[in-house]
Amino acid sequence: MTMPLLLTGLGLVILLLAGDALVKGAVNFALRLGIPALIVSLTIVAFGTSAPELLIATAAISDGAPAIALGNVVGSNTANVLLVLGVPALLAGLHTADCNTRKTFVYMMAATVLFIGVCFFGPITWMHGLLLLAVLVAILLDQFFEAKRHRDAAAELEEPEGADPDMPWWQIIGYLLLGLIGLPLGADLLVDNSVIIARSFGVSEAVIGLTLIAIGTSLPELATTVAAAYRKQADVALGNVIGSNMFNLLAIIGLSSFVGNIPVDPEFLRFDLWVMLASSLILIPFVFFKVNLLRPAGIVLTTLYLAYMFILLV
């Protein structure tokens, strides 16, 4: 059992590093081709940061373990709110009262409700995937035009994440190759060995997706929010979580459904989807009523996540 655990960890590390490399390479490649920074921010960065989850989902479906794909998305969304926002709030506090994330939060909640509805009509097929992707495209178009209005009103638009105007071509190509080679390699290692671990301990593949893989793929978001908390950038932390959750539901499952049908375990319908929905609703006071996400709230969120993990694993 030691080897599958080590290979799972190795797969996760490769996946996270490859995802970061792909974002850096793709952003700078697109900017060198003259694609506006605005479009790069709304598309390449957003999809690039979701690449690890996408590769895990497609690898899991291809390997006959679709419960891992669904568990990863549902578990990641729950972890993003309770853990990824809970920990930085616990450590440094997040001053969310001045954040303007109402519109994107409404989009995230609409995506959550739509996703739950699709699950009740499961298994999730390519037709459901088309619906999810169509909603994502509509949201991206609206975000694009809103961002364009803000750009026109402002003097300058902030450079997208990973942008480096001085990066040489050989480095850009190197990042792209590392990302394109590392992502499928890391995903295969992570999924194959997670299945071995699940079967050895008598744990379902869905639970592995909801716990081990979900926490692992939420680590980049956790690192971002902790850094944002210490820099007093609550809008970055909150926006990162809301955007990640929306992309997980619409893009990851939408694209993965073209690889194969995704059955929905009855336990998801009874429990896990509602935990995901409830964790999203917890953000309402911090988004709409100018409440700061401080240490007491961080304690509550983190405790709720630990309780959820206890229920899943015991």
- What do the pLDDT scores average to? 84
Instruction: Return the string of H and E elements.
Output: HHHHHHHHHHHHHH
CATH class bucket: Mainly Alpha
CATH homology-level superfamily: NCX, central ion-binding region
Shape: globular
What can be said about this structure in brief?
The protein is mostly helical.
What distinguishing features does this structure have?
single chain; A middle domain of Talin 1; 314 residues; 79% helix; mainly alpha
Could you give the topology of this structure?
Blueprint: H1 2-32, H2 37-49, H3 51-62, H4 66-82, H5 86-91, H6 102-120, H7 126-153, H8 169-201, H9 205-217, H10 219-230, H11 234-256, H12 266-281, H13 284-288, H14 295-313
Helix pairs in contact: 1-2, 1-8, 2-7, 3-4, 3-8, 3-11, 4-9, 4-11, 4-12, 4-14, 6-7, 6-11, 6-12, 7-11, 8-9, 10-11
